[in-house]
């Protein structure tokens, strides 16, 4: 399969490559964010908007899920509690540009399908519900009522509700997410694939088995108090910039930082805090004390080696390394774990990690000597075949040292989308537990299905095979975010109906089913006024804190409906006026939704009152709160795993797909990957200079990239080679351009997450 670069792509001839930076944030960060904001919003709207970002009376940043400071620290929230990339996320949403009926009249869908994600996103906010009728060349306006009728007609015509798919991206508020899953289950299916299936599913799976809860166990205060922070497979300087302030604070108390990454990411090396004069003017704070440049997928081996060393030091001096009291009292499976790691094959560890043994030993020493260790990770761990085992190996090391349920310590999967964790808490999951489903039935007097639904990868398979015919997306950009672009786009195009509730134009609108709808919705920044008055919504951050978010800007258009209204009106049309759920009342007053959340969702008692507290409230987390583990054994479980790492054939490279500094997933803000020194272009592959030489390629050459998977090949054309200091044998290219290379069937064991960080590729010279 070959995927051609869009014809009118940005001119790659302009691409410039500079030296990668060795520090992150600081003045350029602030200047860039202000310029981008003013470009999209104008000056006065910029000032008004950024003033409300992440303030107690304002809206939650639609960027990442990193938490805001709480309690007395929250009193001192800096006026600018935002980062460069948060400001870009806001500018993208609060832009003054508009995509209305005239735009669609002027641009046939076939033309839009040839545009890049960047171009599509830059056109502005969607303002009117639009329909693409079967066989038509253009989207045309449709009334909201007709749009809901059309969807209901298609859904009712299915032979079973399981032929419909209901996707969610993680920006949806708790209120909308709760109603969305209620609608989907009332209709009769658990087909609730979400972006989490491609994101932290592996973390949820790993942690549920080991600690009994699929969420992280640390608070911001824990990070501040830690004496050792291990950051694995994460690029906070770009994707969670406010995390750098937390790392800086920990450092100021003497904490050490270990960074494990195939790339020397600027944000792991040095931070110049834009919110302190010292940061702006001085050298900034050095972050990583130990930078382990691991090979892609080598982390399981690394943490097995660390575990092995810790155990051998314990054997040599019993009682000095293992937290006996915790291990004996609160865990299960330690002996099997210890037996598994008693003997390890160092030659295999060397091949898997590419790390010097002395460095592994230094890292193990830091871990053995730390009294308060926090482990942070993101996509560098979750998107591998052996992702679940890798996260469990880190958990093993944490358990061995008793680093859970202790101040300043714990496990911290750093979430992506600003409300991806909340959406799961509210029931957006294809396999919610029985307890939740039963509570829904009791609360609403409805029957909900028990058969597990389809996740993202299985949804694509179902569309490909004709087993799913209607696709509805509550936010997100399914066509571009998913693996195997060619196959996925064909699967979507084979659907009878595709519907997208969206704020901005994206590829999923132009790779459409036979009939397609675009339903424009309010963003986080906008005022949401309903019959009972102005509404707010609630979200949950990466550290289980639930709080209110209130948009203050004028909506992008008079026709826009809130996500809650869209769900309620669709539900009324589809399920009829006699349905036991009071959909119309919910749309009038979101407090009524929250009353139900309080009764159905564990830990949300008294929801309306508690989300009105200035900082909201923190959901219960038994391991963190009382060292209680709701697992099958009633204890925290050690795991004994085989050593596993990606094997790369001769002449091939291992490719990871990642984010540039100037994008939010499939939303491309601009073409400047500033910290990595890549300007004015995105179709690049970063490869070590010595690998380029060995493979017989020249820096700057434009090549095709071919991925190899079980006898099949996928090809993406025209990528420029950049010599880059990545780990040997490893390469990197940007998502979503490189998604064409990720095979649909290459998934993580247990979590079914696409393996986007370990794609076997070869480079091919272009002929002619
Ligand atoms: N500005 C901005 N913020 C974002 C996003 C965005 O696109 N833009 N996306 C949001 C979302 S949804 C998410 S999930 C997060 C993603 O946040 P990240 O996980 O930081 O995102 P990626 O760009 O995928 O970066 C993966 C990092 O892991 C490293 N890595 C890759 N493979 C391996 C490996 O095998 N081992 C190790 N040790 N490291 C590895 C890469 O070199 C890179 O530094 O960010 C969220 N925040
Ligand atoms: N190869 C590769 N693939 C990946 C990844 C990778 O690292 N490599 N990362 C994966 C990860 S971690 C994730 S989370 C997924 C992301 O997958 P998605 O969440 O599906 O993708 P996004 O690009 O975040 O979605 C952007 C769109 O959301 C819509 N939107 C924005 N705000 C709102 C809102 O408030 N309401 C509504 N209704 N719509 C809104 C806009 O129309 C915008 O175009 O991608 C995954 N895909
Ligand atoms: Mo994500």
TrEMBL record:
<protein>
    <submittedName>
        <fullName>FdhF/YdeP family oxidoreductase</fullName>
    </submittedName>
</protein>
<dbReference type="GO" id="GO:0043546">
    <property type="term" value="F:molybdopterin cofactor binding"/>
</dbReference>
<dbReference type="GO" id="GO:0030151">
    <property type="term" value="F:molybdenum ion binding"/>
</dbReference>
<dbReference type="GO" id="GO:0008863">
    <property type="term" value="F:formate dehydrogenase (NAD+) activity"/>
</dbReference>
<dbReference type="InterPro" id="IPR010046">
    <property type="entry name" value="Mopterin_OxRdtse_a_bac"/>
</dbReference>
<feature type="domain" description="Molybdopterin oxidoreductase">
    <location>
        <begin position="125"/>
        <end position="502"/>
    </location>
</feature>
<feature type="domain" description="Molybdopterin dinucleotide-binding">
    <location>
        <begin position="653"/>
        <end position="757"/>
    </location>
</feature>
<dbReference type="Pfam" id="PF01568">
    <property type="entry name" value="Molydop_binding"/>
</dbReference>
<keyword id="KW-0479">Metal-binding</keyword>
<dbReference type="InterPro" id="IPR009010">
    <property type="entry name" value="Asp_de-COase-like_dom_sf"/>
</dbReference>
<keyword id="KW-0408">Iron</keyword>
<comment type="similarity">
    <text>Belongs to the prokaryotic molybdopterin-containing oxidoreductase family.</text>
</comment>
<keyword id="KW-0500">Molybdenum</keyword>
<dbReference type="InterPro" id="IPR050123">
    <property type="entry name" value="Prok_molybdopt-oxidoreductase"/>
</dbReference>
<keyword id="KW-0004">4Fe-4S</keyword>
<keyword id="KW-0560">Oxidoreductase</keyword>
<dbReference type="GO" id="GO:0016020">
    <property type="term" value="C:membrane"/>
</dbReference>
<dbReference type="Pfam" id="PF00384">
    <property type="entry name" value="Molybdopterin"/>
</dbReference>
<dbReference type="InterPro" id="IPR041953">
    <property type="entry name" value="YdeP_MopB"/>
</dbReference>
<dbReference type="GO" id="GO:0051539">
    <property type="term" value="F:4 iron, 4 sulfur cluster binding"/>
</dbReference>
<dbReference type="InterPro" id="IPR037951">
    <property type="entry name" value="MopB_CT_YdeP"/>
</dbReference>
<dbReference type="InterPro" id="IPR006657">
    <property type="entry name" value="MoPterin_dinucl-bd_dom"/>
</dbReference>
<keyword id="KW-0411">Iron-sulfur</keyword>
<dbReference type="InterPro" id="IPR006656">
    <property type="entry name" value="Mopterin_OxRdtase"/>
</dbReference>
């Amino acid at each position: 399969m070959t995927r051609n670069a869009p014809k009118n792509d940005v001119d790659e001839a302009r691409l410039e490559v500079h030296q990668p930076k060795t520090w992150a944030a600081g003045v350029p960060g602030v200047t860039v964010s202000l310029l981008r904001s003013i470009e999209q919003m104008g000056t006065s709207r910029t000032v008004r908007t950024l003033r409300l970002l992440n303030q107690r009376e304002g809206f939650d940043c639609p960027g990442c899920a990193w938490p805001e400071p709480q309690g007395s620290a929250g009193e001192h929230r800096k006026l600018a509690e935002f980062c460069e990339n948060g400001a870009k996320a806001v500018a993208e949403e609060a832009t003054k540009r508009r995509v209305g009926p005239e735009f669609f009249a002027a641009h046939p869908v076939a033309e839009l399908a040839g545009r890049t994600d960047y171009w599509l996103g830059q056109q502005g906010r969607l303002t009117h519900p639009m329909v693409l009728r079967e066989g038509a060349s253009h989207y045309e306006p449709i009334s909201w009522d007709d749009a809901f009728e059309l969807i209901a007609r298609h859904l009712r015509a299915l032979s079973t509700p399981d032929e419909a798919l209901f996707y969610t991206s993680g920006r949806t508020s708790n209120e909308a997410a709760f109603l969305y899953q209620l609608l989907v289950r009332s209709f009769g299916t658990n087909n609730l694939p979400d972006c989490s299936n491609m994101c932290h599913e592996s973390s949820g799976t790993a942690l549920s088995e080991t600690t009994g809860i699929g969420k992280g166990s640390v608070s911001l205060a824990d990070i501040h108090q830690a004496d050792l922070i291990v950051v694995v497979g994460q690029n906070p300087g770009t994707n969670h910039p406010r995390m750098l302030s937390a790392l800086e604070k920990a450092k100021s108390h003497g904490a050490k930082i270990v960074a494990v990454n195939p790339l020397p990411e600027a944000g792991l090396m040095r931070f110049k805090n834009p919110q302190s004069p010292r940061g702006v003017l001085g050298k900034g704070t050095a972050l990583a004390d130990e930078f382990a440049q691991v090979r892609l997928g080598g982390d399981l081996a690394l943490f097995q080696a660390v575990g092995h060393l810790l155990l051998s030091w314990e054997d040599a001096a019993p009682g000095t390394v293992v937290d006996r009291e915790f291990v004996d009292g609160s865990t299960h499976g330690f002996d099997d774990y210890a037996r598994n790691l008693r003997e390890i094959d160092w030659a295999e560890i060397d091949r898997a990690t590419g790390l010097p043994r002395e460095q592994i030993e230094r890292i193990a020493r830091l871990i053995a000597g730390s009294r308060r260790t926090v482990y942070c990770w993101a996509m560098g761990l979750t998107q591998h075949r052996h992702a679940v085992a890798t996260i469990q190996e880190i958990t093993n090391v944490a358990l061995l040292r008793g680093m859970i349920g202790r101040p300043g310590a714990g496990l911290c999967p750093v979430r992506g989308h600003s409300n991806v964790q909340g959406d799961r808490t509210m029931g957006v999951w294809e396999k919610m537990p029985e307890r939740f489903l039963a509570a829904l039935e009791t609360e609403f007097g409805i029957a909900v299905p028990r058969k597990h639904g389809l996740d993202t990868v299985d949804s694509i398979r179902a569309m490909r095979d004709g087993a799913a015919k209607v696709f509805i997306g509550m936010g997100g950009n399914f066509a571009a975010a998913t693996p195997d672009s060619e196959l996925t786009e064909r699967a979507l195009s084979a659907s009878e109906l595709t519907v997208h509730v969206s704020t901005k134009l994206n590829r999923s609108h132009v790779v459409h089913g036979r009939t397609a709808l675009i339903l424009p919705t309010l963003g986080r920044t906008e005022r949401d006024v309903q019959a009972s008055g102005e509404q707010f919504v609630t979200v949950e951050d990466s550290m289980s804190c639930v709080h209110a978010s209130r948009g203050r800007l004028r909506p992008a258009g008079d026709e826009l409906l809130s996500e809650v209204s869209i769900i309620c009106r669709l539900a009324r049309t589809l399920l009829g006026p006699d349905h036991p759920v009071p959909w119309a009342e919910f749309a009038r007053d979101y407090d009524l939704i929250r009353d139900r959340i309080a009764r159905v969702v564990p830990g949300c008692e008294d929801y309306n009152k508690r989300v009105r507290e200035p900082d909201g409230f923190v959901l219960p987390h038994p391991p963190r709160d009382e060292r209680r583990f709701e697992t099958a054994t009633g204890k925290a479980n050690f795991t004994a795993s085989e050593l596993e790492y990606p094997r790369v054939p001769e002449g091939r490279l291992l490719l990871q797909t990642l984010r540039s500094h100037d994008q939010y997933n499939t939303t491309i803000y601009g073409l400047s990957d500033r910290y990595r020194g890549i300007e004015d272009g995105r179709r690049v592959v970063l490869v070590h200079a010595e690998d380029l030489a060995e493979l017989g390629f020249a820096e700057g050459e434009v090549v095709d990239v071919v991925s190899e998977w079980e006898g099949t090949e996928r090809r993406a054309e025209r990528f420029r080679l950049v010599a880059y200091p990545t780990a040997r044998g490893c390469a990197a290219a940007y998502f979503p351009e490189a998604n064409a290379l990720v095979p649909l069937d290459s998934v993580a064991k247990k979590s079914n997450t696409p393996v986007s960080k370990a794609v076997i590729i070869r480079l091919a010279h272009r002929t002619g």
